[in-house]
Amino acid sequence: MKRRVHVLIMTILMIVLATGTAFADNREDTEDTEEYLVGFKNEAAVQAFSNNVTTSAVEVQHEYENLPVIVSELSTEVAQLLENDPSVEFIEKNERVYLDPLVMNNIQETDIPKLEERMKRGDGVKIAVLDTGIASHDDLHVIDGVSFVSVEPFYRDLNGHGTHVAGTIAAQENDEASTGIAPNVELYAVKVLNGLGAGSIASITNGVDWAISNDMDIINMSLGTNTDSEALQRAVERAHDHGILIIAAAGNSGEADKQHTIDYPARYDSVVAIGAVDGNNERASFSSYGEQLEIMAPGVEIHSTFLFNRYERLSGTSMASPHVTGAAALIKSNNPELTNEQIRKRLNTTATPIGNPFYYGHGLLNVDAALD
């Protein structure tokens, strides 16, 4: 390990020597830089890099708490130098992530499980909703939140997507509107996408890292990208190893003429990939498919909470994922001894088969069977 750190410091020296002249006078005269995620072999290498870089060619923007990864503004030349360093396991551009456009339709209620009075409704289960934030709403009780969007340093939702997702999970019981699957959960708003529904691999990885540090039980990610990321994969694997159940939307590319259309992070083995069905329990035309697909849930014309204390009806695998998250919370609250993998197995084995697993996974979410 000492040798690796020594080699890394030599790389840092090369960076300083290679860029020192160019950066000596004015940063405005330098070549363009981009954001990168740099993964090191261990924490010692991260510290060696952060503590020894003194050139303006490198700007360390963020260090993750639970991963030996940094986010840094780098020139192409510096990125190439780091890529060849034995202390660096990977380096990748911080690609942008965008929500699919919201699909709005006429309001239609969604069935919720008929729970026995003795059953808990998500009590004591901590859920992190990684999304556009959560807006203030009479039917939502948010315990706390955090933002990883620099231009929106608050967890309040300016888009509506995250608020809608949160309502499907945990809208409060009343006679006025629809009730969430698990209304008694501890709901946390983790903003990783801005008001336009845009974010990055780094911001999503930030959200996962935060969930680990704050001992969440479940992460819901109604988002995705077709870009594979080593940093994001390692983050969700670390969260899974920490005991967190990670549930993500499979994606809305089902109409594409491809063999596999499931987005990341849903495609990773440590994540439960959720597809969407319509009111006839047929796969929604937009719902992505592939070998990683696990469970289907309602995702067409879903009625839930929205901005300005309103309700809207939206469609997408983003709307299906929180149904499964809510169901998982019910299982956890009534069986607190179960691990994340045991809950995952119960969801899969109790799902109702409705078609080819390539297009329907294990089948349709069956909350009643999962709770038996």
3D architecture notes:
By secondary structure, the chain is of the alpha/beta class. It has helices spanning 2-19, 43-52, 76-83, 161-170, 201-213, 230-241, 317-334, 340-350, 357-360, 367-371, and strands at residues 33-40, 58-63, 69-75, 88-93, 96-98, 103-104, 126-131, 142-147, 186-191, 198-200, 218-221, 245-249, 272-277, 293-298, 302-305, 311-315. Strands 8-9-7-11-12-13-14 form a seven-stranded parallel sheet, with helices on both faces. A four-stranded antiparallel sheet has the order 2-3-1-4. Helix 1 runs parallel beside helix 2. It starts with a helix and ends with a helix. The relative contact order is 0.13. Residues 21-30 and 105-111 have low confidence and may be disordered.
Explain briefly what this protein structure is:
With 372 residues, the chain is an alpha/beta fold. Helices cover 29% and strands 22% of the residues. Its cofactor is Ca(2+).
